[in-house]
């Protein structure tokens, strides 16, 4: 009896994760008992939500091919000395801000290629340049100030042409100025462990691999990125959205999001698409209906679209950047969220208060 008493006293307590597991077991059994069809319905909702994005967009659509080409283009630019040229431009500028110049590299590759190429190419540069963890997070937040696809820029220019605004001024203020202002803002507020570096302290970033090996190796790298990282991350994000929609939660969130965007003077329909699906689709829709809206609303929608959607923030950025930096998944997501909030506020300010600068 004494041995049994000691065993009972030494019995393992139920941990928090075990309690969560027990709740899920009870909930699953209850669903099977009350409505067994609901289990299948939940799976179908998750599958359909992920399938309608993953297959037509990434597998059989043009985006998958665009990702492979963008990685190849980015690697080719890197091989031709593009990164070292950028360092020569940004090192003097960032010295006045007090930040490692490498924080500006991802956003430039993002503008020229896409967010996946930017992460694949720019993330290793942080370590080579000796960037601190705070500077790496500033780099991700700055990355969010540029479109995740070059098509967003093209469609956005077409839409802004319809409402007669000063396009060059809009691009300077919303694309290039944030490359300087966002690192300065974040260094003074959230992430202060930063230090400027001189050009002599930095290594040469241009690889010495043969040109043909660079091109075909980059194509293989782009395919690996697409099928082993981006598609799984996208499927998980949209499966979660499907589950929330099945339980009736997602429509409330989507409605609240549209109301918030309308209050910020951003066209709600294209704004919701920008946040949930991506700027390419939203700008393709907006350019067809831009004449129906004010120039301020069109510009605000364009500024918001020139960022990254939820699947990038919570899927692609953590997966790609944690493999090549010192950051954890949580730190990557936190930096991306901070960058997105800055971009959202920038869109609201341009749409509501700064129309006098760019409206003809």
Overview of the structural elements:
The structure is a single chain. It contains 18 helices and no strands. With 360 residues, it is mainly α. Helix 6 (105-112) packs parallel to helix 8. The protein starts with a helix and ends with a helix.
What brief labels describe this structure?
mainly alpha; 360 residues
**CA-based gyration radius:** 23 Å
Distance between the termini: 90 Å
Low-confidence stretches: none
Q: Which H/E pattern describes the elements? A: HHHHHHHHHHHHHHHHHH
Give the SSE layout.
Elements: H1 2-9, H2 16-34, H3 37-59, H4 62-79, H5 82-97, H6 105-112, H7 115-128, H8 133-143, H9 150-162, H10 167-189, H11 211-246, H12 250-263, H13 268-276, H14 279-289, H15 295-305, H16 310-322, H17 329-352, H18 355-358
Task: Describe the structure concisely.
This protein has 360 residues and is mainly alpha-helical. It has helices at 2-9, 16-34, 37-59, 62-79, 82-97, 105-112, 115-128, 133-143, 150-162, 167-189, 211-246, 250-263, 268-276, 279-289, 295-305, 310-322, 329-352, 355-358.
């Amino acid at each position: 009896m004494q041995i049994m008493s000691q065993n009972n006293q030494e019995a393992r307590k139920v941990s928090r994760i075990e309690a969560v597991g027990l709740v899920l077991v009870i909930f699953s059994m209850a669903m099977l008992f009350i409505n067994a069809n609901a289990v299948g319905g939940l799976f179908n909702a998750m599958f359909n939500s992920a399938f309608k994005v993953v297959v037509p967009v990434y597998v059989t659509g043009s985006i998958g091919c665009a990702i492979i080409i963008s990685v190849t283009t980015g690697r080719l630019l890197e091989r031709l000395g593009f990164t070292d040229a950028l360092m020569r431009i940004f090192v003097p500028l960032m010295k006045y801000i007090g930040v490692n110049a490498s924080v500006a590299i991802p956003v430039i590759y993002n503008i020229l290629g896409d967010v996946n190429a930017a992460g694949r190419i720019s993330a290793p540069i942080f370590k080579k340049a000796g960037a601190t963890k705070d500077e790496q997070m500033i780099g991700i937040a700055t990355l969010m100030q540029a479109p995740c696809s070059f098509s967003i820029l093209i469609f956005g220019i077409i839409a802004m042409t319809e409402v007669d605004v000063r396009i060059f001024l809009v691009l300077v203020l919303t694309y290039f100025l944030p490359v300087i202002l966002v690192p300065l803002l974040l260094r003074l507020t959230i992430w202060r462990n930063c230090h400027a570096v001189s050009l002599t302290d930095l290594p040469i970033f241009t690889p010495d691999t043969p040109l043909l090996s660079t091109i075909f190796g980059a194509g293989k790298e782009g395919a690996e990125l697409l099928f082993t990282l981006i598609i799984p991350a996208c499927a998980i994000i949209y499966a979660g959205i499907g589950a929330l929609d099945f339980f009736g939660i997602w429509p409330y969130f989507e409605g609240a999001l549209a109301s918030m965007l309308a209050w910020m003077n951003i066209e709600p329909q294209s704004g919701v698409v920008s946040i949930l699906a991506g700027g390419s689709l939203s700008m393709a829709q907006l350019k067809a209906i831009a004449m129906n809206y004010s120039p301020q609303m069109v510009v605000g929608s364009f500024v918001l679209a020139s960022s990254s959607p939820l699947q990038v923030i919570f899927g692609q950025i953590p997966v790609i950047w944690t493999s090549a930096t010192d950051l954890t998944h949580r730190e990557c997501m936190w930096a991306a969220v901070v960058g997105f909030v800055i971009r959202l506020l920038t869109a609201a300010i341009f749409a509501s208060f700064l129309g006098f600068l760019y409206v003809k």
